[in-house]
Amino acid sequence: MTAAAARGVTVKSLEHAYEQEPVLHGVSFDAEPGESIALLGPSGCGKTTLLRLIAGLERPSSGSITIGEEEVAGTTWVPPDRRRVGMVFQDWALFPHLSVAKNVAYGIAKSPNKDEAVADALQMMNLAGLEDRMPATLSGGQQQRVALARALAPRPGVLLLDEPFSNLDTNLRVEVRTEVRGLLAKLGITSIFVTHDQDEAFIVGDRVAVMREGQIVQADSPQTLYHQPADRWTAEFVGTMSVIPGDANSGLVDCVLGSLPTDPELNGLVDVILRPEQLSIEAGDEAEVQLVEYYGHDSMVFVNLGDQQLRVRCGASTNLIRGDRVRVAFIGEQALAFSAG
Hints:
This protein is an alpha+beta fold. The chain has eight helices and 19 strands.
């Protein structure tokens, strides 16, 4: 199966409200053709509303949406069935009274190549042989694949996904999201993906747009978001960290770990943000291990240093236990910090 030519998506100054209650405030972003954008944010921040506006399931209060070269909302209005946009919902929204094949064919019922398109979509999602099964007889992973096949069968230029993996158990979610990310990259489809899970956003997104209270606070690559967050809230939302007070001056910040390199533009009292991999544990008697979480591939060690608790990422072979006396050292290139208060 080959996808239709990928189309970019441009959102400008989008505003939306439900019964006078503002939901989106001046949202703007671009998705390049073939790019995968993850919309990441807490519940209620406006992620799903933004997706529904792009799909045409809602009309914005103001602003514009352009898909490809065509404005679909703003000075004009294009209904959802003419936008060539596929959508996968959080609950998959399969029709329980229709077979797998008929679910997949729903959006292309009048196409002369319907049977071929359905067969291609099912083959692509590893569902061949399940054409006559009913949704209730399928596993969660299979139902999710049927929803994806249905969205892809019309060969959309843009695919919208609203937390499509949230109903799967942990192991299956990891497997399916990796499979879907590879499939979308192979097909070259522009995709916009809603999630509240940072790990998921970093895996599926070429870029990640972090949303908070109806606004996009930062849109960058996963690497930039993690290492150069726009503010302390974003730093905390996109990854594990420890926060300690410090006093910055001329590119150095004095804190409980000593004098660390930091942004030379910072001066005065700051909050120092430390990622677990920027710290190491050495022999010493300055701090005490409070907890060790073992993950198999590595371990997270919680250490009390005075009245500060630090999280340190260690290898899987660490033999540290609760109560051990240690020393914590900074091994990063530069400590991230934000003005206190």
